[in-house]
Amino acid sequence: METTTLIKNGVVVDTEPEPVVLGRLDVRIDGDTIAEVGPDLPAGPHAEVIDATGRIVLPGFVDTHRHTWQAGIRAVAPDIAFTEYVRRVLGELAPRHRPRDVHAGNLAGALECLDSGITTLLDWSHVQSTPDHTDSAVAALHESGIRAVFGYCYAGPTDGLAATARGVRERLFDTTGGLVTMVIAALGPEIADEEHALAEWRLAADLGLPVTAHLGGHGGESARRGLAFLEENGLLATPTTFVHALHYTDDEFKRIAAAGGTVSISPVDEMNLGLGYPTTGRARAAGIPAGLSADTVVCSSGDMFSQMRTAHLLERGRPDGAGFGFTTRDALRMATIEGAQVVGLADVVGSLRPGKQADVVLLRTDTPGMAAAHDPIAAVVLNADTSSVDTVMVAGRVVKRDGRLLHHDLGAVLADLAETAGAVVAA
After folding, report:
1. Can you give the residue range of the structural domain that contains 319?
2. Are residues 266 and 333 in the same domain?
3. Could you tell me if 331 and 189 lie in one domain?
4. What would the pLDDT profile of 189-215 be if each residue is shown by its tens digit?
């Protein structure tokens, strides 16, 4: 029997096509789907009623790019530049991760997302040392209860890419849908060689999967060469997310937009690692859907509130008032429906439109930091934090209630994370 959940008396904020405060309304959820948003909706005889009085009701946040396995090495390198990150984190610590360490990091990292209201996560997973590592990463995402897009990154010999990735898809993913799906997390053409890049994009096209890749983050010349390579080989016919996209010219952004590309921006991490000033306004001005991401908790915060605030601050802080057109509504849109566009799920999540999956967050307003807010959207972006997250639903299932995560022994999860983290760093 399909369950009905009625969220009553909350201040409802929707995000499609643009963020708007709808007012004090109810949200009815039938099974895993948003059925209706409106005033004084009837509960029905068997409905579960969630009293949202004093709460802001909005769609769950979407993180468009996170190396989730790094939860066990949080703040291990908070004040380093990108070259040192590559040496320390990717060169030293990543190879020390056993499959159990990857499982512990992915499970704790996904629960961290849910705890902070992130209901959809693109897990950019570049720790596929063995098939067991891949199995452990995907299993943890399933166990967490989050909606996840698993970005499979293969760094082995190019001639083994197609068979290995096809095997992963056939073995671990139900192609008819489900909470955990797959994309190709590509290394090339700015990190791997061009032969490997061609194989990655062609494989993605053959499998009907999008591509997410770190592009445009390594200087202007590298960005120019990489984009030209993708264009010359017709690879942008495959939906592609440009992660960071820091060093493109306005003309290059227009070309990316014309090709249907999207951008993932990590404002905290990009500034902290010295990668460059986030291109939030320029990318969006070119018509490119842009989402937000935490990237890595090695040197960045892991919650979406920090990302929204930083994006808002840095864009409005551009010289000569160039970013004053960017608003708190733009920041919230990037964290919800625009982020859903970036990960290819705009028809599934990102707003409260009836027919979409019921990924919903309730934020408290009965705290000193959230009380008496005149603009609920501004309060979400500028004032809320993880402690404001009262209730979280994924596909109609409550995963956090009254400020507490459900369905997991959190103490055991964190103890396991601490044990594996100690082993990785001490190895």
Report:
1. 61-342
2. yes
3. yes
4. 999 999 999 999 999 999 999 999 999
Residue 416 inside a domain? The answer is no
pLDDT value, residue 427: 67
Residue 1 binned pLDDT confidence (cut-offs 50, 70, 90): low
Identify whether 421 is part of a domain.
no
Same domain assignment for residues 338 and 355 = no
Residue 176 scores a pLDDT above 90: no
Residue 255 lies in a domain: yes
User: What is the value of pTM for the model shown?
Assistant: 0.97
- Tell which residue, 65, 64, 56, has the closest CA to residue 19: 56
Shared domain for 399 and 356, answered yes or no, is: yes
108 and 184, same domain (yes or no): yes
The model's pLDDT over 252-266, given as tens digits with 9 standing for 90+, comes to: 999 999 999 999 999
